[in-house]
Specification:
This is Aminopeptidase P family protein. The chain is of the alpha+beta class. The protein is built from 13 helices and 17 strands. It is globular, with a radius of gyration of 24 Å.
Length: 426
């Protein structure tokens, strides 16, 4: 047994490094209490009004008479209304209609109208007409027509044009609206272009979500010991997010050791071993509905990295720092691609396809691919007020994967990191 421990120490490094910088992110009030947001209600109220006006501005630019929203993330952005978000992502049972020359109406799940009390952007709340097969069955057709009649009546009565932007709609619903003479447009593009530019108040809300996420990451760091399962470690992030007012995690991307490569394996009951890399991507929808999308990699048992782990980690840091440094407003996507960090050939088969992506209430446009995958016809401009995530995944044949990611605000001077959770010392 002593000989096995000695060999393990040689392979993984025997120095235990418990990073005190990470302990600073744990809840200072104690492990038994949630984090409480210090932001005043006025910050949230201004963000709500800004977001709804962003949508209305895009509607004017697109010359559409109405915006019909089913995506719960878009409804949250428009009204700050959140009700059974995950459930309604796959059960289209609540929706919103914003009229260019009329009111902003929320169609709420019957019996849940009260969850919207006090939200300033909603002019009217009506009971939603659900026509999904789950609840309608053989009554789907008459319920669908009743839904379409109500939507058409509202569109006709407020004098706008007959162009309607729609984010997500079952084919039958689209057919019914077209039968009534309406032209449908891509409301998801409209919404994501509106969401892309953040106000100062939105950034404050996002900073708080990141603070909660980093507290969860500190909890994960503390329990990253041999003998734990991947799921046990991942649960710490869920716990901190849920108790501090957050919502959900979009993925289950935490793996250890050989399960880090290839990437995109979901966390499991695999028991982590001393010295293995633990790599993860938070994809956390936190307080106020904003996303904290951060990635880190560290060793189980807080031991020094071995030589190969250090080499991979250093390359990942180089990619992050290089791409952060070149970001500036006014840069086209093609210009970023041309100047971006070049991934060495030996790492390319194991690469992460995204170099950058937008982040707001979820991952969002633009998603800019890594240089081997970039399409020169993918056009766009990096703008001040965007929040972009800078990504890195580095691995080679037979190695573990190092996953790093940081979230940055585009300012007049360049990229300002919003997260501060420490990188590893190597």
């Amino acid at each position: 047994m002593l000989r096995e421990e000695s060999v393990s120490a040689e392979l993984t490094g025997s120095t235990v490094f418990k990073d005190e910088r990470k302990q600073a992110y744990l809840n200072p009030q104690g492990a038994d209490r949630p984090l409480i947001s210090p932001l005043p209600a006025t910050t949230l109220d201004r963000a709500r009004r800004y977001r709804l006006e962003r949508l209305r501005t895009k509607m004017r630019e697109w010359d559409c008479g109405a915006l019909l929203l089913y995506d719960p993330v878009n409804i949250r952005y428009a009204f700050d209304s959140s009700n059974m978000s995950i459930w309604t992502m796959h059960n289209a049972s609540r929706y919103a209609l914003i009229l260019a020359d009329g009111p902003a109406i929320l169609f709420e799940f019957e019996g849940a109208e009260h969850v919207n009390d006090g939200l300033p952007g909603i002019d009217e709340i009506r009971p939603a007409k659900s026509w999904i097969f789950f609840t309608s069955g053989s009554l789907m057709e008459p319920r669908l027509k009743a839904w379409a009649d109500e939507v058409a009546d509202l569109l006709n009565s407020h004098g706008g044009n007959r162009r309607v932007a729609v984010d997500r709609l079952e084919p039958a619903g689209a057919f019914e609206l077209r039968e009534r003479g309406f032209t449908l447009m891509d409301g998801q593009e409209l919404a994501e272009r509106a969401r892309a530019i953040k106000s100062a108040d939105e950034i404050e809300l996002m900073r708080w979500t990141i603070r909660v996420c980093e507290a969860g990451m500190a909890r994960m760091y503390e329990v990253s010991e041999p003998g734990r399962t991947e799921r046990e470690i991942w649960a710490e992030l869920h716990f901190e997010n849920a108790r501090s007012g957050g919502e959900w995690l979009e993925t289950k991307l935490l793996t250890a050791g050989p399960r880090t490569n290839p990437w995109y394996q979901e966390c499991s009951d695999y028991v982590v071993k001393r010295g293995e890399m633990i790599s993860f991507d938070t994809d956390m929808i936190g307080p106020y509905g904003y996303c904290a999308d951060l990635s880190r990699s560290w060793t189980a048992g807080h031991v020094a990295m071995n030589a190969r782990q250090k080499q991979l980690y250093a390359a990942a840091r180089d990619q992050i720092e290089h791409n952060l440094a070149i970001l500036k407003p006014g840069m086209t996507f093609a210009e970023f691609n041309a100047l971006s960090w070049r991934i060495p050939e030996k790492y390319q088969p194991y690469r992460y396809t995204l170099a950058l992506h937008g982040t707001g209430m979820a991952d969002e446009w633009p998603g800019i691919l890594l240089h081997p995958d970039f399409d020169p016809d993918f056009s766009g401009i990096i703008e001040e007020g965007m929040v972009l995530n800078v990504e890195s995944l580095v691995a080679e044949a037979g190695s573990e994967s190092i996953k790093l990611e940081t979230q940055a605000l585009i300012t007049a001077k360049g990229a300002e990191r919003l997260d501060t959770f420490p990188w590893e010392e190597i």
